Amino acid sequence: MKIKKISLFIPLSVLLWSAAWSQSQISYSGSPTYSLVERTDLLRYDNNKYVGLTSREVRSFITPVSQNNGYLYEGNFFVNEKTQRDSSSVAAGIHDSILSVFRIGKDGVLTMVEDHGYPSFRSFPSYPAHQIQVGERWQAKAERAVDPLNKGIVTKMPIYVEYTYAGDESLNGQPVYRINAQWATRYGMGSGTSYIDWGGDRELQKAVGTHKATILVSKASGAALVVRDTVDETFVYADGNQVHLKGTINLFTEYPPAVDRDRLLPALRRFAMIDEEEEKKLRSVSVPDTTVAVLVEKEPVKKEELPFDNDIAAEPVDIAMADLTDDRQLSEPYTDNLEPQHQRDLTTAFQADPLPELPKKNEAAITVDQTPAGLRLTILDLQFEADSERLLPGETKRLDNIAAVLKEAGQSQFLIEGHTARVGNSTDGEMELSLSRARSIAEALAKRGIQPGRFICKGSGGNKPIADNSTAEGRARNRRVEITILE
User: What are phi and psi of 392, to 5 degrees?
Assistant: First the structure.
């Protein structure tokens, strides 16, 4: 069976769909910015002794940052570790962003550009290029990233998935397609398996187990709304220790809540961050189209749900290392100074009621612009102590105003990105300082009444300059913090 390579690992909703499902054309019609949520609840046994419930949630906000022979996406991931005791869990605080950058070509092939272990499923699910009917099966390769001991060392394992189109259902009142998937975990040397990730955890010698998943795909939008994976697998380490995990991994595609601009934009004007003309432009925003392809079927499928055989083949799948790497070589390197190329259409004016005159906007203080991820507030020339994340007292009023604006953003989350000027070659120090400054701003805003769990902090060092670092004025502009209201 010829399988079309369709890389759905992060955007379960915006990539290439080539399978045939219904008589009408179906294309992805949701937001270009979305969140992928991975919730894990696994019982853990160490050397056959029960340890407890491992429970955590990984969230990400995915945004297109450029379009060139496909799309380049940037994901900001963060982890909520939950320690469950008597049905309670630890409250979430300020999050540090874990960056993931990947490219999806026009052929649907996904290439990781900057990989820090998230998401854990890559090129999953996949669909055949020909028309399919209820009960039909197909197979495709994918990849999974694991770190069972939370060592901070991610190991990539190839997986070979068998899919079955199981029928039509409804989810929360909306019609969906149901796809069943199953695969065997096979990693290590011997017993018919010959794959080792030499860039992963060298102490991990072997992994075996089974996965059985259900995937629900929206008929209306083409989005894979839910993936529920039932897991039973064992990891064997060089010192003889064995870790057995059994439970569920659930993936959800979610979309940020809509921002009430009737509340947010007047607040920005009230504090002179935008003027009347800018408000009109921001009210007329249109969303860029990131649809890549459509689904077409000439003949309608029957709404008959056939039984699904969940027995996984006992023979291990033998996948050579080159199989998963040959088509993932980078055609061009990724650089951190890429700016979003999808510009919003800001040409249609909105005729709002006249507002009272406001003080002239201080262009050197805070600027506001629209990005694919949402409205971005750029705080220029922030006054920190030299080479420190400690804010000087003179920033109190500006932070008061920003907090007042963010309180009008409903339940949106905020990405806070710190930037430094590029001075010398100390890039590691710049990255650390920029992240510390982003966290400092988040902490200051949390003290002003915004829930800490709504902040995602990211440090970009001097990789995204907006001015010339060879001048004092340029370096001052590059020392900034950006707050994006994710939408």
Answer: -80, 155
Residue type, 318: D
CB 261 within 8 A of CB 284: no
Torsion 257-262-266-267 (CA) sign? negative
Q: Taking residues 114-128, report their average pLDDT.
A: 85
Residue 321 confidence (pLDDT) above 70: no
**Predicted TM-score (pTM) of this structure:** 0.73
Q: Output 2 or 283, whichever has higher pLDDT.
A: 283
How many alpha carbons lie under 13 Å from residue 166 in its C-beta half-sphere? 18
Place of tokens 């900057």: 114
Of 97, 146, 100, residue with least CA distance to 455:
97
Contact 157, 144 (CB under 8 A): yes
With beta carbons less than 8 A apart as the criterion, state whether 197 and 155 touch.
yes
Q: How far apart are the first and last CA of the chain?
A: 40
CA–CA dist 359, 362 (Å, integer): 9
Tell me the C-alpha distance between 3 and 393, whole Å.
Answer: 61
Q: Residue with structure tokens 């920005």?
A: 268
- Tens digits of per-residue pLDDT, 193-203? 678 999 999 99
Sheet holding 374-379, edge to edge: 95-96, 455-459, 414-418, 481-486, 374-379, 366-371
- Report helix angle 396-406 to 261-270, nearest 10: 160
**Reduced to 3 DSSP states, what percent helix, strand and coil does the chain have, rounded to the nearest 5?**
15, 40, 45
- Cβ(124)–Cβ(161) under 8 Å? yes
* β pairing state of 414-418 and 455-459: parallel
Q: What pairs with residue 415 in β-bridges? A: 456, 484
Rounded Cα–Cα distance for residues 268 and 176 (Å) = 41
Q: Give the DSSP letter of residue 316.
A: P
- Give 451's contacts (C-beta < 8 A, 6+ positions apart): none
Q: Which residues pair with 235 in a beta bridge?
A: 207, 243
Tell me the β-bridge partners of 81. Answer: 56
Tally Cβ neighbours within 10 Å of residue 118. Answer: 23
Q: Label the pairing between strands 34-46 and 49-67.
A: antiparallel
